[in-house]
Amino acid sequence: MQITPITNPYYNTYRPAFGTNTRCVKNKTGQILYRNTTNFFRKDLKWDMFGKFLKAKYKNTAYVNVINYACSDGSEPLSVAILLNEIFGKEAKKFFPLIAKDFDRSVICMAKGDYVNMDYYDYEAINRFTNGKFNKYFKYTTGGIGFKNHYPVRVNPYLKKLINFSVADIRTDTQNIPSRNTVLFCRNFWPYIKTKEERAQLVRNLALRLQVNCTLITGNYDNIVDISKMLIENGFKHVKDLPNVYEKVNK
């Protein structure tokens, strides 16, 4: 796949404030094209409140499509799967399997594996959002988990089965997004789309696709290209007290 280089120098120096898995992809001249930077339960989403929001919004919905673009090594869709499992219990089955996609074949290969990289901050976050049930979802090595360095942690096979990983670019994959009862994660990649026109076109495509009972989630990194304004101009509205979470307004 051809990736358009980022020409704005600000994007090349910005470092998102999270990152168990940090992988920088450059072109032949050394220019940064994009970063795979992620961790569990990123702090730019109020996960507890978000879970309660989903529980209320989709209470009477028989099946909900949950799709995560730019999923990187799988840390985010794994976080979502854990959250849904903890919030909904047996009823969580209506959200599964989650669909997780990334245009980078290397990170999808990582995500499909049996292990995911973690550090102690991930361990703490998982325990915090599961009331101390880390061992329900993961098994760490006898060497433990480090504070500064990340280590491979085995994913519970049950948890792995809740997510289908595949290669796709959201810019050319919008036709595969269900138009009803969809929760769409498209977080922390918008600045890597080169021009404002391209970003605007993708927002328009998403607005046309997401029609009934749909939710869209972005991230703090996306705010530097003012995605919020574009979304609101195209029929989305902020969810009260939930930064980076939007509902599609039905006409």
From the structure above, extract its key features.
alpha/beta; 251 residues; 12 strands; disordered N terminus; globular; single chain
* Main β-sheet description: 7 strands, mixed
Mean pLDDT: 86
Low-confidence stretches: 1-28, 30-36
Number of helices: 10
Can you give a write-up of this model?
The chain is α/β, with parallel strands linked by helices and 251 residues long. It is built from ten helices and twelve strands. It has helices spanning 9-13, 47-57, 75-88, 105-111, 120-130, 134-137, 157-160, 170-173, 196-209, 227-233, and strands spanning 21-26, 32-38, 65-69, 98-102, 115-118, 138-139, 151-155, 163-167, 182-186, 215-217, 236-239, 242-248. It has a seven-stranded mixed sheet, with helices on both faces. Strands 5-7-6 form a three-stranded antiparallel sheet. Helix 9 links the parallel strand 9 (182-186) and strand 10. The longest helix has 14 residues, at 75-88. The radius of gyration is 18 Å and the shape is globular. The protein starts with 8 loop residues before the first helix and ends with a strand. Mean pLDDT is 86; it is low at 1-28 and 30-36.
